[in-house]
Amino acid sequence: MAKIAINIATGSLQKEEIIVGIDLGTTNSLVAIIHPDTRQAVALKEHNSSSLVPSVVHFDAVGNITVGEEAKNFLITEPQNTIFSAKRLMGKSYDDIKENASFFSYKVIDDNTQSMIKIQVGNKFYSPVDLSSFILKELKHRAEHILKTPVNKAVITVPAYFNDAQRQATRDAGKLAGIDVLRIVNEPTAASLAYGLGLNKEEEKTIAVYDLGGGTFDISVLKISNGIFEVLSTNGDTYLGGDDIDNSIVKYWLQQSGINEEELKLNKEFAQAIRLKAEEAKIHLSSNDIFEGVLNADQLTLTKKVFESLVQPLVDKTIACCSGALKDAGLTTKDIEVIVMVGGSTRVPLVKENISRFFDKPVNDTVNPDEVVALGAAIQADILAGNNKDVLLLDITPLSLGIETMGGLMDVLITRNSKIPNKAARQYTTHKDGQSGMKISVYQGERDMVKDNRKLAEFNLTGIPGMPAGLPKVEVSFLINADGILVVKAKELRSGIEQSIEVKAQQDLTDQELEKMLRDSITHAKEDIATRALVEARTEGEQLLENTEKFIQKNASQLTKEEMMQTAAAMQALQLALTMEDKDLIHIKVEALNDISRPYAERIMDTAIGHAMKGKIV
Ligand code: ADP
Ligand code: MG
After folding, report:
1. Architecture of domain 401-514
2. Which of 239, 320, 416, 533 qualifies as a cystine partner to 400, CB 3.0-4.6 A?
3. What is the mean pLDDT of the chain?
């Protein structure tokens, strides 16, 4: 791959176009920019209001969507229609989250498969990508309103532990919101950048980023050298944060006034009000010694001493995670040179004191902890825009590289703007029993359907030994060497057979063509993602029909006549839905068939029905 000038790398046509940094948080999200005059990173906010936008989406009865503070008000009164913590669901299947399913007060579809999770509101289905895109759209609108200029490009942050699927989901959400996502950056990396770490090329440092947010805790150990951030280890607790502090305070107050928790559940308004009071008390106690509030004429008091006794057990848990992260990185506290504090909950003085004592050095807390990640994202955006000449630019891939999967979809292995050299691999499986070959078609581009991208190469992996569908494990790996040559290899892991091909990527692509491809991907984002959702729904539906049929053939004798008839009717309804261009209808019929088959499948197999698609199908 040739050296790419920075304007092409970012796809930016006009130099003056602004690239924003976005912190898409579990609890709060926000946008930051490098101020063109002061060259300082600043969080965007409307006059007299907070820069933070609660990551909450509310749907009203006629389908209107609101995001942010206004939506947050519906959390207790309309839990079914108010989605919080969508970030926890990004790139996940129901199987991934089922242990925590009770956490979600809205309807998360239990489809018993490993396909991507869905949320139901009324008779509409939303993916976590849809939900995050609503938040991003709101952020985009706000930014445009404040800056009085279109905002089309962004750097978005994700937790360091996010896997490939979660990162891709975040990219898709951006695209769906009409944002060209130039890069996905790790949150701890962004926070470090906001403290100026990593901007000096000569600098070598080992640092820890402690991030205690609303509902999650992350500790990351990073090594910075030559301006490159390497994640040495991550640890944390995905269900530990400021919300838990609020809950402890509520519990304490209830105990004090002799109210039991069951009563609280019955009175939603009161539950909401007391929870908000608890948060108010917590924030007040960051800089005062006592909180005295009133709720429904009752006095609510909290001293700093009691507050700290409530917080201490939570802080102890985070410290255990810090020890784990150090151990995994093969380091001790002495090796950590800098500690960066991130997340609103690190404002609690007890937290800072404890962490400082644990690492035996002062912590960095001068940058606003709720804004620090977005500010760092803005700094990264500015570097990508080519405004920061001192920072090293590496060779990068100008377009995403991937292969064709079921239904003509593009499955990206190496995303655009990735560093070269690079490698990536993913596992796929077969669709038919006894399938002996698999066609691997390699494409380049940003569109969701391969037909809209550029085909680079195609080859067949042949000689797969006869196995039932879903059993073979075909690993497709992409390797781009320093000269930009892409080697694609497919290997069936059970039998060891393999095949590979060399591709000289985009040798004949002009700058104009490249720009057009990037622009098209944004212009067509909506229809592309809708098509993808439809193809995915259809694939899931077809798969379910096939598996149900197999299952019934095998177990017919163990089904009642009524079960047989109900199943046949549900299958017919699904079959019909598959012929229509309506993903929601397909999901409804898939749900209906699952609901019918689940009881007898569980009865017969005592484990999950074999609906699960193990890996995607080429
Ligand atoms: P996330 O990264 O999960 O989106 P944030 O970093 O925005 O979350 O942190 C939100 C949490 O920070 C909330 O629980 C909020 O109550 C808490 N918080 C904000 N300010 C303070 C403060 N002064 N003292 C204690 N907690 C605070
Ligand atoms: Mg955060």
Report:
1. Sandwich (2.60)
2. 416
3. 89
Strand partners, 228: 225
Question: What region, left, alpha or beta, does residue 80 occupy, with left being phi > 0 and alpha being psi -120 to 50 degrees?
Answer: alpha
Instruction: Give per-residue pLDDT as tens, 281-328.
Output: 999 999 999 999 998 888 999 999 999 999 999 999 999 999 999 999
Of the candidates 260, 253, 305, the residue with the CA atom closest to the CA atom of residue 279? 253
- Alpha carbons 343 and 217: distance in angstroms, whole number: 9
In the chain, list all ranges with CATH 2.60.34.10.
401-514
Instruction: State in Å: Cα 346 to ligand 1 middle.
Output: 8
Question: What pLDDT digit, counting tens, does each position of 197-209 carry?
Answer: 988 878 899 999 9
Q: What's the token pair of residue 311? A: 């917080």
Determine how β-strand 124-126 pairs with β-strand 153-158: unpaired
The CATH topology of domain 527-613 is Substrate Binding Domain Of Dnak; Chain:A; Domain 2 (1.20.1270)
CB atoms within 10 A of CB 71: 25
Nearest CA to ligand 1 atom 11: 214
With a CB cutoff of 8 Å and minimum separation 6, the contacts of 64 are none
DSSP letter, residue 466 = P
**What CA–CA distance (Å, rounded) separates 371 from 264?**
34
Q: Which residues surround ligand 2, an ion (CB under 5 A)?
A: 25, 213
349 preceded by a cis bond (ω within 30 of 0):
no
Six-digit token string for 9: 């790398």
Nearest residue to 398 via CA among 425, 422, 427: 422
Looking at the chain, the domain(s) classified CATH 1.20.1270.10 span 527-613
210: nearest Cα among 365, 54, 24: 365
What's the rounded Cα separation, in Å, for the pair 587 and 120? 10
Instruction: Indicate which residues carry an active-site annotation.
Output: 23, 87, 187, 211
Fold category of 201-366 in CATH: Nucleotidyltransferase; domain 5 (3.30.420)
**Kind and range of the H or E run holding 33:** strand 28-34
User: Is residue 26 in contact with ligand 1, taking CB distance under 6 Å?
Assistant: yes
Give the burial class of 282: count Cβ atoms within 10 A of its Cβ; 0-12 exposed, 13-18 middle, 19 or more buried.
buried
